[in-house]
Specification:
This protein has 401 residues and is α+β, with helices and mostly antiparallel strands. It is built from eleven helices and ten strands. Helix 1 runs parallel beside helix 3.
C-alpha cells in the first residue's frame, strides 16, 4: 500500500497512528520479553503484554476493520496501515496472536450473530486469550487424522482427547478446537468448537519445555469436558472446512487484526549493527566481504517477501488461492531461521553465550532466535508438508511416495 493509493482518511489515520505510538510508547517491561507471543511464560509477561494490546485496541490500532457491532472500529483498509506503523515503531508484539490471527477471522466468517458479538471483542482487546486445539500426538501436519472425540448429549457435547503444541494454553480462556464427531468419514466427520479452557472442569494443561528452556507450548487433556452446542462453529461435520479458514488466516492470506514486534527490515538492520560490533581476528565482521554479501542476500529475500505480501492483496495477481499464503508461510519461516543462523555466525564464539550472560551480544538474542526458529517451521503445518501441498495442489505434480 503506497501513499499514492491511500484515501485522505487513510493518510490521516497513518499520521494519527504514528503520533499515538510516539506519544504512548510503553514503559520497559518488568522482565525480559520472549521473541514472539508463543513463548510467553510468566504472569508478569502476560499482564504487561495484555495491557499493551488493550491500549492499542482502545486507540483504534487493533480491530480497525472489524464491524463496530463486533467490537471493532468499523473502518476499511485501516488495519494494514496500523500493522505497518506498529512494526515500524518497534513496540512490543500483541500477545493474543491466536485470537487475532485465527479465532476472530474464523468466527467472523463462520459464526452466528450471537457468536460474533460474544467472542470477537475479547479477541481484539486481548482481554480473552485464545489457544489452538488442532495438533494431536497422531495428528500434527495430518490434520484430518483427529482422534479427540465429541459426543452429543442433549444440549452439550462431551469431549475426550489430547492436544499438543498448544501455544498460550496455560493462559487461554478459550480454545479453537477441532474434534471427531464421526468415524465414518475422515474429513466430514470433524466438527469445530469454541471451547472454554481456563478453570473448566475436565481440562488439564501441562507445559512442554522446549530446547530454549521456555514453556510457551503446552499439551491439553480433555476428560469428559462439556461444551455447549451453542459453542459449535458452523454445522456438525463442517470442521474441516472451518479449519481451512483458520489455516488460511494463520498462513497469511487474511488481513491480520494486529501486528507489532518487528519486521524483516528491522532484522536486517539488527544484523548490520551486529556485524559492526563483532570482531574476528582483529577485523570487524562488517568489513568482511563474505559477511556483507550474506547480509545483502538476506535483505533481497526480505524484500521479496514484502512484495509477495503486496501481491497477495491483489486478487488479479493471485493465480491460485493457496499458492501465495502457503509460499509466504514457508519462505517467511525460513527467512527468520536463516537470519538467526547468520546472526549466530556473525557473533562467532560469542554466540555460545546465552541470554542470561551479560556478555552475550544483543542480550543473547541470536542463539535464542535460532533455537526458537524451528517452532515456526513446524507451526501451521511443517515446511515439508507445505512443499508437498504446493507441489501437488498448486503445481499439479504427482503425489510423493
Amino acid at each position: 500500500m503506497t501513499e499514492a493509493n491511500l484515501t485522505p482518511e487513510q493518510l490521516e489515520f497513518r499520521e494519527y497512528a504514528q503520533r499515538w505510538l510516539e506519544e504512548n510508547a510503553p514503559p520497559p517491561p518488568p522482565e525480559r520479553l520472549p521473541i514472539t507471543p508463543i513463548e510467553v511464560m510468566t504472569v508478569g509477561q502476560r499482564d504487561y503484554l495484555q495491557d499493551w494490546q488493550y491500549k492499542c485496541f482502545a486507540a483504534g490500532l487493533v480491530g480497525a476493520d472489524y464491524p463496530k457491532a463486533y467490537g471493532g472500529h468499523g473502518h476499511t483498509g485501516f488495519q494494514r496501515i496500523a500493522n505497518q506503523e506498529l512494526n515500524r515503531a518497534q513496540v512490543p508484539f500483541l500477545i493474543n496472536i491466536v485470537g487475532l490471527s485465527m479465532a476472530a477471522p474464523t468466527i467472523l466468517h463462520h459464526g452466528t450473530e450471537e457468536q460474533k458479538r460474544k467472542f470477537i471483542p475479547g479477541c481484539l482487546s486481548g482481554e480473552e486469550i485464545w489457544c489452538q486445539g488442532f495438533s494431536e500426538p497422531g495428528a500434527g501436519s495430518d490434520l484430518a487424522n483427529q482422534r479427540t472425540s465429541a459426543v452429543r448429549e442433549a444440549e452439550d457435547w462431551i469431549v475426550n482427547g489430547h492436544k499438543v503444541w498448544t501455544s498460550l494454553g496455560h493462559f487461554a480462556k478459550w480454545m479453537i478446537l477441532v474434534t471427531r464427531t464421526s468415524k465414518d468419514d475422515k474429513y466430514n466427520g470433524l466438527t469445530y468448537f469454541l471451547c472454554p479452557i481456563a478453570g473448566h472442569a475436565g481440562v488439564t494443561v501441562r507445559p512442554l519445555v522446549k530446547i530454549t528452556g521456555e514453556t510457551g507450548f503446552n499439551e491439553v487433556f480433555f476428560e469428559d469436558v462439556r461444551v455447549p452446542d451453542a459453542n459449535r462453529l458452523d454445522d456438525v461435520g463442517k470442521g474441516w472446512a472451518v479449519a481451512m479458514t483458520t489455516l488460511l488466516a494463520e498462513r497469511g492470506a487474511s488481513e491480520g487484526a494486529g501486528s507489532g514486534g518487528g519486521s524483516g527490515s528491522s532484522a536486517i538492520a539488527d544484523l548490520i549493527e551486529l556485524a559492526r560490533n563483532s570482531w574476528r581476528d582483529g577485523v570487524l565482521a562488517v568489513d568482511d566481504p563474505v559477511t556483507r554479501d550474506a547480509i545483502i542476500q538476506r535483505a533481497i529475500v526480505g524484500e521479496g517477501l514484502r512484495q509477495n505480501g503486496r501481491r497477495a492483496r491483489v486478487a488479479a495477481l493471485c493465480d491460485h488461492p493457496m499458492r501465495l499464503p502457503l509460499q509466504q508461510k514457508l519462505t517467511a519461516s525460513e527467512f527468520q531461521q536463516d537470519n538467526a543462523r547468520l546472526g549466530v555466525e556473525i557473533a562467532g564464539a560469542s554466540a555460545s553465550l546465552y541470554k542470561l550472560d551479560p556478555r552475550a551480544p544483543d542480550a543473547g538474542h541470536w542463539p535464542l532466535a535460532y533455537l526458537n526458529s524451528y517452532g515456526n517451521t513446524i507451526a501451521a503445518g511443517t515446511n515439508e508438508i507445505q512443499r508437498n501441498i504446493l507441489g501437488e495442489r498448486v503445481l499439479g505434480l504427482p503425489k510423493s511416495k
